[in-house]
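Shipment paperwork, digital attachment
Item: protein structure file
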Amino acid sequence: MSISEDARVHPSARIGANVEVGAFSIVHAGVTIESGSRIGSFCEIGAAAAPAAAKAVRATTIGAGAYIRSHAVVYAGAEIGEAFEAGHRVTIREGTVIGDGVRIGTLCDIQGDCSIGDYARLHSGVFVAKLCKVGRYAWLLPRVVLTNDPTPPSERLRGCVVGDYAVVAAGALLLPGVVLGAGSLVAAMACVGIDVPPDMVAMGVPARVTGRASEIRLRGEPSAPAYPWQRHFHRGYPPELVRSWVEGPLATPEDLDAP
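Attachment content:
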């Protein structure tokens, strides 16, 4: 265990073996940080929710092997799986549940009561509104925004759902309640106010469905399908998972469960 002398760790926090806590970070009461995790400088883990949002919450848990970079804030009641990575200045609000192997880029803002499935990838500057769900292996590229309020400001929230293996390209906006099917693709800068079926492409402002993702080819390789992407993109995934993608039959989008 390596805890900076400038860090503040509450006596009731449970800190596993070989955990590092950087200078000027705060670990509050009721937090569990599992073995092999690294918390950068100036982080706050287990931050209290605002009084208006206060409620009974789950314990705050950081799974084994996590790496949370400097100035990140994880609120009380967030549950984060193993091998998690967070960029700088990430915010994860109370009640959020994050699976194993998830990577969240710098300046992402994950609001309360969200769920993010195993090995999802959120690039820098992504905003995920309260009650949204992101599926396993999904990709949200830089500055994607998921919204939740059809008539702002109101309390009648409808979170978006992003299905397993779906890809949302840079700068796209999903309007409240939109559901993206498994393996679907949203083009860059699209404004999506309709549900997108599995394996379909949505593009434009307002977005419309234009065809099948599985019919798109890799640039410069007209015979090579770009989707399903897991046939050819494997960086950062466990070898056994990659082997199943390459050697075994892929589940059809209709077979995959929404998150």
